[in-house]
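Agenda item 2: flavin-adenine dinucleotide complex prediction
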Amino acid sequence: MRILHWFRIDLRVRDNRSLDWSAERGDFLLPLFVFDDALVAAPRHGANRLHFLYACVERLADALAKRGQTLVVRRGDPRVWVPRLAREARIDWVSFNRDTVPRAKTRDAEVERALREDGVQVVSHKDHVVFESSEILTKTGQPFSVYTPYRNAWWRQYELDPPTPPRRRRLPPPVPGVEAGGLPSRDRLLPASIPAEGVLPTGGEAAARRRLRSFLERDSAAYAERRDLPAADATSRLSPYLRLGVVSPRECFREAFEWLAEHPAAERGVRKWLDELVWREFYQAILDLHPRVLRRAYRPEYDALRWSADAERFAAWCEGRTGFPFVDAAMRQLRSTGWMHNRARMVVASFLVKDLWIDWRWGERFFLEHLVDGDPASNNGGWQWSASTGTDAQPYFRIFNPVSQSERYDPDGVYIRRFVPELGGLDAGRIHRPWTAPLEAPGYPPPIVDHAAARHHALRAFESVRPDGR
Ligand SMILES: Cc1cc2nc3c(=O)[nH]c(=O)nc-3n(C[C@H](O)[C@H](O)[C@H](O)COP(=O)(O)OP(=O)(O)OC[C@H]3O[C@@H](n4cnc5c(N)ncnc54)[C@H](O)[C@@H]3O)c2cc1C
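Presented output:
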């Protein structure tokens, strides 16, 4: 049997459900990756993510070569390339792993239709999550809309039906007569703005596995205490790898439990970390079930909110010159590294929406353009949570104070100093409020908004559209 495995957001050889399925059944295998023109040209897939993607595809090609296989690479429209290659190579089955992003689901349905018309069989697999949206339901068979009961049900399911470990298989030989194509040149394919050397994470599954291992060894035990401190850099930084499937979520759970078996004292930290991976699954399920959240509020009443379109304030937020040091440090971290700490993401998102009263979708789009881990499901979930329009929303009346968040999570100002050098001369007492010492922070802007007044405005606006008026 001749099988084509279509790589998309599963850029790894190990523990890849579709690849394993193909390896078990195929006499010949055609592993394919298509650089989708629609993806490469879209500004929402910013330079950071595309360069990281490219590096991961390069490493994937190496990993396949070591196993006697050749990654076939094409550039263009997968709706054209997958059926065309299947025809040319006389493929019996096309196999791929499922995606939850609406655009990808539409594309996959079109590819599948074209293949079936040509008499090619198609199979898709669960791979990007441990449990799909249909597997975690309430007792009455409904999907969850709140994280905590979802998480409890998720863990019950994990106890009942833990994912089976992958079996190591040899890959079948390449389908004869197919031109590999090779990777298109980086310069011709990718945006000209190349991220600075060493800024992006190293691509490939070996790097992902090293990162997982070093996180478990170094930071997992204290994760619960240190995960909220941006200066500590004590989280796993696995998000870009999970985004592109360079590491399997099942492997993260398995490795973490193996680590726990040997290091029971790490229980609290490891459990907390695994619950974060369950957040990821929750948002994947939400997007899968409610694709409209990419355009609208999850809670429809909040679609009535009338946002400001103040382009100048938005630019100040984007560029990290709001006059609030923690917010500015975070936005500059994003722009200079393509990544931002989770606590900082929550604070800058709250600031954009509740202090500047700018539509959360503007921030969501900006994040997707810059984040190396930019993921439609987690990003939308995070933005709607922060804007109080989402599933398990931050209640609208709980509004982050950007100064007290800064004092609490960056008490010595280490994170601020790292990204806002103009404030390097201020001591820990004043770095959170540089307007109290303007002479010591030359060139740093005054606050662009009065937090107390903005908070008042946000509360009134939310109350005006709530059905209960409160
Ligand atoms: C406004 C906003 C936007 C966000 N956008 C994204 C995004 O585009 N892509 C993305 O992967 N995450 C996003 N997050 C979630 C979170 O900030 C990142 O997953 C996390 O900071 C990644 O760092 P890490 O890998 O070191 O996380 P760790 O703390 O080590 O967590 C391990 C993994 O769990 C998952 N995870 C952790 N926190 C969350 C969360 N709150 N929601 C969903 N999954 C989570 C990630 O896959 C992460 O890699 C966003 C959060 C907010 C508030």
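Discussion summary: Residues 267-289 form the longest helix (23 residues).
Owner for follow-up: CH.
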